[in-house]
Structure formats: structure tokens, C-alpha cells
């Protein structure tokens, strides 16, 4: 899926603005909720993925853990300057890229081993994960056009919801074929989506840092 970060958006300006105090407070509350929900789903989905032998569930669980970490970073830089928010976005983009590489390697090993996942567990946990991510994505929707740091938070939630639908499709595929290839395909696709999103956030954060360096009067914004 392509991710457009066009130059016409406000977050590409040389001097990205901070949220107002009231907006920052609301955004902070949303991030705390997102952090708590993602941390809880990581524990649940990791346990279910190991029990079910599902690489797609494990990939989604690791993604939940990464998102919880990303939300914590976003909270830490919520009131920081634009340059520090862009640096935080670079750090988060790197974590998304590392996640993608890790899942690709693990999925390749699972395909080589030929493990058959438990389809029913995949389907039930996938539905619960989807409900969680839709709730988080809905809470974050109004902030999707912010700077690279806010953009990365939105992309994480959006990608997770897409991944959950894919996990449920993989569960149906495993159930119907009695083979693990639907699970491996979905896990690999989730890894590629993470790589694409991570690269998009990385490029935007680099643009913001270059713009900040070229506009010295804006360094305090």
C-alpha cells in the first residue's frame, strides 16, 4: 500500500507548529489510552501466537509491543521542539524497519519448518486485536496530518488494523487448506507493510530536520 506524504500538507512546512496546550493535553490522553491498550494486546497476542504456532499472530504481537513503545516516545516528546519531535520520529521509523526485518526472517524460518498454526485461535484473537486497533485508530484519526512524529503514530495504528484483518483471513485460509502458507504470507505482508511505513516516516522526518536546519529562526517552534 502506498503512503503519500505530499509536500502540500502543513506538516511539510519548514516550521511545523506545536499543538496548543489544550490540544496537547487531549492528544496526551489519547496516547496514554493507546499505550495501555497496545501493551495489554501484546501480552495476550504473544501468548496466543506461541500457543497457536502462528507467525502472523506473533508478528502482530510484536507490532503491538513496538506501537506501545512508540506511543511512550511520543508522550515523552509531546511538548518538545520540532527538531526533537523529528528526531523521535527517526527513532520510531528505525524500530518499524527493524520489526519488518525480524518478522521476515522469522516467517522464512517458519515456512522452512512447516508448522501448522491453530486456525480457531488465530481467528478469535485476530478479531479482538482488530477491535482494539480500530478504537485506537479512531481516537488518533484527527491527528493523522501532523508532523512526522504524529504521522508515525497514525500510520502504526492504521497498519495494525489492516494487519488484523489479514490475520483473520489467514486463519480462514489455514482452516480451509490445512496448511500454514496463509499464515506465512500474511506475516510476510505485515513485515513489508512495516518496512514501507517506516521508510515513509523516515523520509518525512529527514525532510523536517533539513527544513529546520535551513530555517534557523524556526528552531524554537
From TrEMBL:
Gene3D superfamilies, per database record: Cation efflux protein transmembrane domain (1.20.1510.10)
GO MF entries: monoatomic cation transmembrane transporter activity
Origin: domain of life: Bacteria
Family annotation (SUPFAM superfamilies): Cation efflux protein transmembrane domain-like
Domain Cation efflux protein transmembrane: 32-209
InterPro entries documented for this protein: Cation_efflux_TM, Cation_efflux_TMD_sf
Keywords: Membrane, Transmembrane, Transmembrane helix
GO cellular component, one term: membrane
Localization annotation: Membrane
Transmembrane spans: 30-56, 68-86, 93-112, 118-141, 161-178, 184-202
Membrane topology note: Multi-pass membrane protein
UniProt name for this protein: Cadmium, cobalt and zinc/H(+)-K(+) antiporter
Organism: Tepidimonas taiwanensis
Amino acid at each position: 500500500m502506498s503512503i503519500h506524504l505530499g509536500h502540500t500538507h502543513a506538516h511539510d512546512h519548514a516550521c511545523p507548529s506545536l499543538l496548543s496546550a489544550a490540544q496537547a493535553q487531549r492528544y496526551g490522553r489519547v496516547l496514554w489510552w493507546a499505550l495501555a491498550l497496545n501493551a495489554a494486546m501484546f501480552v495476550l497476542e504473544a501468548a496466543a501466537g506461541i500457543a497457536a504456532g502462528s507467525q502472523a499472530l506473533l508478528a502482530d504481537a510484536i507490532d503491538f509491543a513496538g506501537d506501545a513503545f512508540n506511543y511512550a516516545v511520543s508522550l515523552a516528546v509531546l511538548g518538545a521542539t520540532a527538531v526533537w519531535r523529528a528526531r523521535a520520529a527517526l527513532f520510531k521509523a528505525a524500530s518499524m524497519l527493524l520489526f519488518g526485518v525480524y518478522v521476515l526472517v522469522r516467517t522464512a524460518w517458519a515456512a522452512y519448518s512447516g508448522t501448522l498454526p491453530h486456525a480457531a485461535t488465530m481467528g478469535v484473537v485476530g478479531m479482538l486485536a482488530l477491535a482494539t486497533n480500530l478504537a485506537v485508530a479512531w481516537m488518533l484519526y484527527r491527528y493523522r496530518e501532523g508532523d512526522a512524529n504524529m504521522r508515525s503514530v497514525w500510520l502504526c495504528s492504521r497498519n495494525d488494523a489492516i494487519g488484523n484483518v489479514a490475520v483473520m483471513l489467514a486463519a480462514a485460509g489455514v482452516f480451509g487448506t490445512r496448511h500454514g502458507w496463509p499464515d506465512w504470507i500474511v506475516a510476510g505482508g505485515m513485515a513489508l507493510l512495516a518496512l514501507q511505513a517506516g521508510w515513509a516516516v523516515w523520509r518525512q522526518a529527514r525532510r523536517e530536520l533539513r527544513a529546520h536546519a535551513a530555517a534557523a529562526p524556526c528552531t524554537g517552534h
